[in-house]
Specification:
This protein is α+β, with helices and mostly antiparallel strands. The protein has one domain: Histidine kinase-like ATPase, C-terminal domain (Heat Shock Protein 90). 22% of the residues lie in helices and 23% in strands. It has two helices and three strands, in the order E-H-E-E-H. The chain has a three-stranded antiparallel beta sheet with strand order 1-3-2, covered by helices on one side. The longest helix is centred in the middle third of the chain and has 11 residues.
Length: 93
């Protein structure tokens, strides 16, 4: 079944977008694979989104890829805010 519930955790959302051709649905799941690149060989190593995805997941978050209506792609990172207890523990160090 499907359930809808309010999450007790608040998230911070940070998004990056462009106005290019977008990411084809056929390769959308592959963009987080190490060394994957849809561009020319001179466009980088194909590790940028892999590193961002790993870091965001390390902090308990997730990435979302969205096609922009005007063209291009938006990649949003959702990372949970630290609880008050975690923030207080960090300040005591």
């Amino acid at each position: 079944g499907v359930q809808t519930c309010a999450l007790p955790i608040s998230f911070v959302r940070r998004a990056v977008s462009d106005d290019g051709h977008g990411i084809r649905a056929a390769i959308r799941e592959r963009v987080f694979e190490p060394f994957f690149s849809s561009g020319s060989r001179r466009s980088g190593l194909g590790l940028g989104l892999t590193a961002v995805d790993a870091l965001v997941h390390l902090y308990g978050g997730h990435l979302q890829i969205v096609d922009r209506p005007a063209g291009g792609t938006e990649i949003a990172a959702f990372v949970p805010l630290a609880s008050e207890e975690v923030a207080a523990a960090g300040e005591q160090r």
